[in-house]
Design goal:
- The chain has 432 residues and is an alpha/beta fold.
- It folds into 3 domains: 5-162, Rossmann fold (3-Layer(aba) Sandwich), CATH 3.40.50.11060; 197-368, P-loop containing nucleotide triphosphate hydrolases (Rossmann fold), CATH 3.40.50.300; 374-424.
- The chain has helices at residues 25-38, 62-75, 88-98, 105-116, 120-134, 138-145, 158-163, 166-196, 212-222, 271-276, 278-281, 301-314, 358-368, 385-394, 415-420, and strands at 9-18, 41-51, 79-82, 101-104, 201-206, 246-250, 256-261, 289-295, 322-327, 346-349, 374-380, 397-402, 407-413.
- The strands form 3 sheets. Strands 6-7-5-8-9-10 form a 6-stranded mixed β-sheet, sandwiched between helices. A 4-stranded parallel β-sheet has the order 2-1-3-4, with helices on both faces.
- Helix 3 (88-98) links the parallel strand 3 and strand 4.
- The longest helix has 31 residues, at 166-196.
- The N and C termini lie far apart (70 Å).
- Residues 142-149 and 232-237 have low confidence and may be disordered.
């Protein structure tokens, strides 16, 4: 028996396989089971139904709903989780027949986010998404929200908020949106400060649990100047981390760069959640290069790649340089690795866990950043020594020489710093 089984919410998961279904239903249900685990539940059984179309009243049909009711009674199930989004009417009808708490995939993901969000912005974003999702489903939610206790699917706004009239909820939505706009202004100021540092920005994107946080930590380890305390949280669970992290990495040429991660994606990611997190996700727009991290060992590799690319297309960032990073290669034979080339251009195969090919990845980042570095010699007067510190902190300086005129530095700098500090450039016979 799984450790802590008695304390976990017993759940039965339900999926429908339509005739035109393109995703492997078993893999999709496996992912749903992982989502249930991430929400604090345990799956005791699963039901998969093949249908030609969705039943508008009961999603799976009333007969199947009665069958599931019997399963729940036999297995002492508390919650039934559906692998698709349900309408308010479907929620209400299913709960009446099954007489258990009914949660759909969208609400489950929102529930996980509500439990994991730690920053003020993250909590507001999740609450906004929950309110927008629940607003048209108030009637369907009333039955199980009135039950005693909490659990999966009930975190967030709560019964009191959902039992008030729609106008009150709409006012709450407006209040949250105003609060998020204020936070967006603050983030915009911080973003401008980062842009002012003239360091290139590399963003990690990809499916949840693909290994983005592990990769970030390995790159931090390779930067001798980075404090070990800057490592980000890593756990083998879907959506283990939500809040964006920003860390400093170092390229082979010694140039520093900023590395930022984003919330992991998942198939059927709730529309409300994408909309709510758009402010955070739009940080990707300001990156110079994207690292699309992929779990190479996952059976639904192509689905995960396409899911990420679809969201990046929605964010209008597909024009940026993208390197596809096939991670977890320690778990797969490269000769058996199959993927859709339509979504993959520049690529590399790594293992973040063991550090395999990370040196090559950093070289690829260096080669694909849209920054044309120029090798120069600078003569910095002694009354401008703060500039010396700037270059020493942000660049790999080939040599430093002190003479009567000031400090002489030889290094390669980015185009903006080249223009900004052009007056300090002096000729050197070794530079063509």
């Amino acid at each position: 028996m799984e450790k802590g089984y008695a304390n976990k919410e017993k759940t039965l998961i339900v999926g429908i396989e339509l005739e035109d279904y393109t995703i492997n239903i078993d893999n999709s249900m496996d992912e749903l089971e992982e989502l249930v685990k991430a929400a604090g539940g345990i799956v005791v059984s699963r039901v998969i139904q093949k249908r030609s179309s969705i039943d508008p009243a009961y999603f799976i049909g009333k007969g199947k709903a009665l069958e599931i009711k019997n399963y729940c009674d036999e297995l002492d199930v508390e919650t039934v989780v559906f692998n698709d989004e349900l309408s308010g009417a479907q929620l209400r009808n299913l709960e009446k027949v099954i007489d258990k708490k009914i949660v759909d995939r969208t609400n489950l993901i929102l529930d996980i986010f509500a439990n994991r969000a730690t920053s003020k912005e993250g909590k507001l974003q999740v609450k906004l998404a929950q309110l927008k999702y629940r607003l048209p489903r108030l009637v369907g939610f009333r039955d199980y929200l009135s039950r005693e206790g909490g659990g999966i699917g009930t975190r967030g706004p709560g019964e009191q908020k959902l039992e008030t009239d729609r106008r009150h909820i709409l006012r709450e939505i407006n209040n949250i949106e105003r609060a998020l706009k204020k936070i967006e202004k603050t983030r915009s100021i911080k973003r401008k400060k980062r842009e002012g540092s003239k360091l290139p920005i590399v963003a990690l994107v990809g499916y949840t649990n693909a290994g983005k946080s592990t990769l970030m930590n390995k790159i931090i380890e390779m930067n001798e100047d980075q404090d070990e305390s800057k490592k980000v949280f890593v756990y083998d669970m879907l959506f283990a981390t939500l809040d964006t992290s920003l860390r400093k990495g170092k390229l082979p040429n010694g140039q520093n760069f900023l590395l930022t991660d984003t919330v992991g994606f998942v198939s059927k990611l709730p529309t409300h959640l994408i909309e709510a997190f758009k402010g955070t996700l739009e940080e990707v727009k300001y990156a110079d290069l994207l690292l699309h991290v992929v779990d190479a060992s996952n059976d639904d590799l192509d689905i995960q790649i396409k899911t990420t690319m679809d969201i990046l297309e929605e964010l209008e960032v597909l024009d940026k340089p993208i390197i596809t990073v096939f991670n977890k290669m320690d778990k797969v034979d490269i000769t058996n690795l199959l993927y859709d080339n339509r979504y993959v251009d520049k690529k590399i195969f790594i293992s973040s866990k063991y550090g395999t090919n990370l040196d090559k990845l950093l070289m690829m980042i260096q080669e694909n950043l849209p920054w044309d570095y120029k090798e120069v010699v600078l003569m910095i007067p002694y009354d401008k020594q703060s500039l010396v510190n700037y270059f020493l902190e942000n660049y790999q300086v080939d040599y430093v020489n002190y003479n009567e005129e000031g400090t002489k530095l030889k290094l390669s700098i980015n185009p903006e710093d080249y223009r900004r500090y052009y007056a300090y450039i002096v000729p050197d016979k070794n530079i063509q």
